[in-house]
Amino acid sequence: MAGGKVTSPTGTAPNRYVYYPGTEELGADEIRVIACGTGMPTARRAQAAAAWVVELGNGDKFIVDIGSGSMANIQSLMIPSNFLTKIFLTHLHTDHWADLVSIWAGGWTAGRTVPLEVWGPSGAREDMGTKYAVEHLLKAYNWDYMTRAVTINPTPGEIKVHEFDYRGLNEVVYEENGVTFRSWPCIHAGDGPVSLALEWNGYKVVFGGDTAPNIWYPEYAKGADLAIHECWMTSDDMMTKYNQPAQLALRINLMFHCSAQSFGQIMSMVQPRRAVAYHFFNDEDTRYKIYGAVRENYDGPLSMATDMMVWNITRDGVTERMAVSPDRTWDVEGPGEELAPDPTRDSEYTQFILDGRLDVDKANARWVREFMDRNGLTAEDIEQGS
Ligand SMILES: [Zn+2]
Ligand SMILES: [Zn+2]
């Protein structure tokens, strides 16, 4: 019942039909999945590109895909940076991993004390795999890395890559603390993309990578508690709203993505406790055409995902709600000692630039003295890490 019965004018509504991040404990045998990006490669404020946060009752948390624009939604969940260090990628299109740089640099400045870890597929060639991608991302952001490593600390700027074979058929790619991730291939624009299944405590949550219908998903996702799979906009809408020529609008639904009718057939084979359709712009005038097309072939439980949709999975059921989170979130402090700058690192300045410092000592004298006294700092602290 929405809100529940309110019995006192100063009381609260007992039944929450929305999720306020940071206010609900997760049961020991419960999973929470939050959609932090459900959209497309083209940016829009209402929907970031693909990203999912998974929280398990054993305390483990994972990010699966971290597409462009999604980090603001992830951040709005108010989860301390040190709890969000394990990231799984289904493939290397920007709409599935572009915000890796945002969590990398953002978490680094906001209190993460440990390196990030990324799990992702290999490619048909070395230069098409996750290891190559992350290595070269760090090269592209070398100035960012070097200047933060000297001012803050280098450790949270490291990214450990665990690349696995994209050809594995339901192979285990991660096993720790009772949690298993398995992977199988997708058919999407080239070799490399995968779908991922998380198994824990007898539950299974499947994160479908971008794919044309393939034989593996129905087999390995079978009976999942939550089966997430892409579900494309109609070819007519791809023409009129996404500006695609007819030939591409047709092929996109058949050859490298998945039409809503195909999604329906796949979910009829999987028979999940709840199916989740995503990767479309979820508007009044697109949603129902997609929904109707899915219903031609599937009549089971279905979520038409949009950003900040939340699922709680227990033995009793799978619930769908919307999260209500602040637009103006701050990073939440978590466990872990803050790191000091590494005194062995050389400054990234030359004397030429340092000679350009304007003398503002007089203007700052009062507040700097008070601040240093209050926090027990010495003159040495100003120099270190600068
Ligand atoms: Zn893709
Ligand atoms: Zn995509």
Question: What do you see in this structure?
Answer:
With 386 residues, this protein is α/β, with parallel strands linked by helices. It folds into two domains: 26-323, Metallo-beta-lactamase, Chain A (4-Layer Sandwich); 351-383, no CATH class. It is built from 13 helices and 16 strands. The protein has helices spanning 71-75, 94-97, 100-109, 130-140, 142-151, 216-220, 235-240, 246-256, 260-270, 284-295, 351-354, 361-375, 379-383, and strands at residues 18-19, 31-37, 51-56, 61-66, 86-88, 116-121, 159-164, 171-176, 179-185, 194-200, 203-207, 226-230, 274-278, 302-304, 309-313, 318-323. A nine-stranded mixed β-sheet has the order 1-16-15-2-3-4-5-6-7. A seven-stranded mixed β-sheet has the order 8-9-10-11-12-13-14. α9 (260-270) crosses α10 (284-295). The termini are far apart. 39% of the residues are buried. The model has no long low-confidence stretch (mean pLDDT 96). The structure holds zinc ion (2 copies). Residues 91, 93, 188, 210 line the site of one zinc ion.
